[in-house]
Amino acid sequence: AKAFVVTPSVSSIRKRQLIDQGYVVIEATAEEFFTGLHGLVTATITSRIDLLKNRYPHQIAMLNAGLLEQQSELLRFFEAVGPRELSPKSKSSRRELFFEGVEPTWDDIAQGLDAEREIMPSFLEQITGNRNGVHSFVLAGHAGSGKSTMLRRMAFELAKDGHTVYFCKAEKTVDAQPIVSFLNSIGDRHVYIFLDDAIIQFETVDAVAHALEKETNVTFILADRPHVVYSRLRTLRVTKPFVLDMPYLQKTDCERIIEKLGQFGMLGDLQGKPLYQQLRQFLGRSKKQLLVAMKEATSGRGFDVILENEFRSLSGENARIAYTVTCLAYMHGAPVHRRHLLACMTGTDLEKTSTLTNDLREVIIPWNGRDELLCPRHRVIAHQVATETAPIGIRAIAAATFLSQLSGDVTPYNISRRTPEYIAYRGIINFENMLSLFGEDYEVIAGIYSDLKDYYGHDFL
User: Fold this and answer.
1) With helix as H, strand as E and coil as C, how does the chain read?
2) Which tens digit of pLDDT belongs to each residue from 97-145?
3) Does residue 364 carry a pLDDT above 60?
4) CA–CA separation, 389 vs 304, rounded Å?
5) Is this prediction's pTM over 0.85?
6) Are strands 242-245 and 134-140 parallel, antiparallel or unpaired?
7) 240 neighbors 219 (Cβ within 8 angstroms)
8) CB atoms closer than 10 angstroms to residue 318
9) Predicted local confidence at residue 5, as pLDDT
10) What is the pLDDT of residues 195-220, one digit of tens each?
11) Helices 147-160 and 120-127: crossing angle, nearest 10°?
């Protein structure tokens, strides 16, 4: 039906006209209609526990065990990690995406797609060294260094050893109170809480640590890039964080990576070459990011050339602008809402959806498994595309169009919660970042600011 027409009275002629046009005519008052509707739909609405089971299928056993009320607020942002819930699936995982640089899923970790880093046992030993009181660690590594994979692998290994583990990768600041309530309710049981892309959670962690009872035992492990971590360490005053620096690739790291690539048929140009030649390709790039080293070593081409060819192969300007928009946002750590991305494109809704679904398939992917939030495969890719690969004209259109679409969502509330919209806006609009995008082309930069003045110039921004 096109619509339901609810009216206390309607003539027979008018009613027939509406029905002929595809409308459903209901003779009732608004109160009668909605009261009746409420009774009809109440029985069909999925219960809260079933909704949680659908969203967190690997946690069904825990939910059935009666932990719902205690953990429901916590589970809005955190995943409970355990080997039983995260056992590898019978069907093969999307291995190609993992080796293309997409951040790992729990299934990737369970399938063992990642190669163990030489430093990981030392990190785990430090993290588990003291189980009394409140402790925090910061895993610092540049984009593409493998820290997100390391973080999930450590969480998985701790859960496999029987520890209580929670993992969070949220697009905005999480609420401190549910975490405090949960931790204070479990006595002296030790809990490990992992937070990826954690710079926006530093104040929350400190607030939680300050509000915990004396007998609470918890270890926070946060991960982010060094240049944002070191400037914010002072905000963690209660927990006094210890920094774990991600090292460059070691020889043993390269050997394990080569073994994994061979195991899953992803060696590319290295296939069939002796080990010493394979190692030479990796070790010669050991000071580059892991993603860059892996792509260059297995393809025989430079990382910039690989991404430039991918960009040129996109179907048209709509696809290139959409890709550039997601890269502009994600280089600052912010995924893009699907509705914002569609609004940046031209054409009919069907054409825009087709571009996003088909032409950009596995180029733009769901962020953290959530279809309403989108991102490129990795932040390293985002930075390269946004600053080098995309032509300046495309960058300028993408920046101006995207920021104009965001303007209605950059509100005081979203700023306080550090939502993706605010993070993207703050990162792109910054003058120093504009210079990194457009060099010293002040005419382009001034043009973008001029285009955006009507959207942002009238208020506190």
Assistant:
1) CCCEEEECCCCHHHHHHHHHCCCEEEECCHHHHHHHHHHHHHCCCCCHHHHHHHHCHHHHHHHHHHHHHHHCCHHHCEEEECCCCCCCCCCCCCHHHHHCCCCCCHHHHHHCCCCCCCCHHHHHHHHCCCCCCEEEEEEECCCCCCHHHHHHHHHHHHHHCCCEEEEECCCCCCCHHHHHHHHHHCCCCEEEEEECCHHHHHHHHHHHHHHCCCCCEEEEEEEECHHHHCCCHHHCCCCCCEEEECCCCCHHHHHHHHHHHHHCCCCHHHCCCCHHHHHHHHHCCCCCCHHHHHHHHHHCCCHHHHHHHHHHCCCCHHHHHHHHHHHHHHCCCCCEEHHHHHHCCCCCHHHHHHHHHHHCECCEEEECCEEEEEEECCHHHHHHHHHHHCCHHHHHHHHHHHHHHHHHHCCHHHHHHCCHHHHHHHHHHCHHHHHHHHCCCHHHHHHHHHHHHHHHCCCCC
2) 777 778 888 888 888 888 889 999 999 999 998 878 899 999 998 877 8
3) yes
4) 7
5) no
6) parallel
7) no
8) 20
9) 93
10) 998 888 888 898 898 889 888 999 99
11) 60
Measured between its terminal Cα atoms, the distance across the chain in Å is 44
pLDDT in tens, 68-90: 555 666 777 788 787 554 555 54
Q: Bridge partners of 136?
A: 220
* Residue 387 CB-density burial (10 A; 0-12 exposed, 13-18 middle, 19+ buried): middle
**Residue whose entry in the numeric block shows the structure tokens 């930069």:** 445
Burial of 458 (0-12, 13-18, 19+ CB in 10 A): exposed
pLDDT above 70: residue 296: yes
Q: What is the mean pLDDT of the chain?
A: 85
* Contact present, 267 and 240 (Cβ < 8 Å): no
Q: Which two tokens stand for residue 127?
A: 């993290």
- Rounded to the nearest 10°, the torsion over CA 303, 304, 306, 311 is 140
The amino acid at residue 327 is C
Q: Which two tokens stand for residue 136?
A: 């925090």
Q: For the chain, how big is the Rg over CA atoms in Å?
A: 25
